[in-house]
Amino acid sequence: MSEHDKVEGQLTVGLDVGDRYTHACVLDPDGVILEETRLATNARALRHRFEGKERQRVVLEAGVHSPWISRLLVELGQEVYVANPRRLRAIYENENKCDRVDARYLARIGRLDPALLFPLSHRTAQAQADLAVLRSRAALVRARSSLIRFVRGVVKSSGGRIPACDARLFARKAELHLPAELRPALSLLLATIADMDARIGEYDNEIESMATERYPETDLLRQVAGVGPITAATFVLTVEDPTRFARCRSIGSYLGLRPRRDESGTINRQLRITKAGDGALRSLLVSCSQYILGHFGPDTDLAAGVFTSRSAAARMARSVRWWPSPANYRCFSCGSGQQVRSTSPCETLAYRGPYPPHDDGRGALALGGAC
User: Fold this and answer.
1) Which pLDDT does position 49 carry in this prediction?
2) Residue 361 pairs with which residues in a beta bridge?
3) From edge to edge, which strands make up the β-sheet containing 57-61?
4) Which of these, 245, 242, 212, lies nearest to 228 by C-alpha position?
């Protein structure tokens, strides 16, 4: 996305991207519609339409196809803005909504003022591919959990019971407690669960290598006792460029941990968190916060009385900073590369302890102040 002012005489193109077809609306500098057309949603059609053309301002909404389309259009020399669909009420609340009208709205808003689009910056292709590895592992873990719940439910409905155990040991332990009449039905499922354990282990090894070789900054995060490659890599790949945040606390809003606001006069309603941004990292942070507040968490001032209500998890997660602690780590957010002193504005409280169940087996986190 380019931030410079609109070039005199520059055309504005609104793209409403669908899974198979993309509707385009082209406006001249005066807002007159020059062309409305439909393209196939593939690289070949987009190259044929934009390659070799004068620089145009292209506006599209964030979605499944927007990462690769935006990278392709930038490569072709176009000025690209990826709009935040949550902020475009004029489009998704339009009573006459259709693909052609949506393309018109995008073009007109982009021509007027791109800031009204609340434009987003997509991560790089390499970061997207590496994050897909983490997402694939998480999907496999969810699938394993679903199968485990199914097996437990079937056994329980037949009068049996499988003792509580770690998911990695479930296949072996369940084999010892299966009723004889259920073995033909469940033995293949147990073999599938055991195979999933092996595949998850392979993902763990791949993520370890990826974090070590391509993302050396994860070493700083993993200096906190308990932070492993999965947690560190998820944070680094989600944030990608920490310098785009003016303060550490902006991470809370970025991950949807900030409460919504509805204030008017003397009325100031207490609302839930926005849940914007990346749900996977937000879930991880909230899970860690719940662990610290729970019975198995370490004795800290946070758990002792600073946060005591059930809604404390979101508030604590909002204060989570994966930037290293003041005692012996460098400031990841500021990028200063200098040792952080206890008097530094980046001072944090480092939590060290056993991992929460949701984490990757090594979990711990840094909590505290803001840059």
Assistant:
1) 94
2) none
3) 33-40, 21-27, 12-17, 57-61, 79-83
4) 212
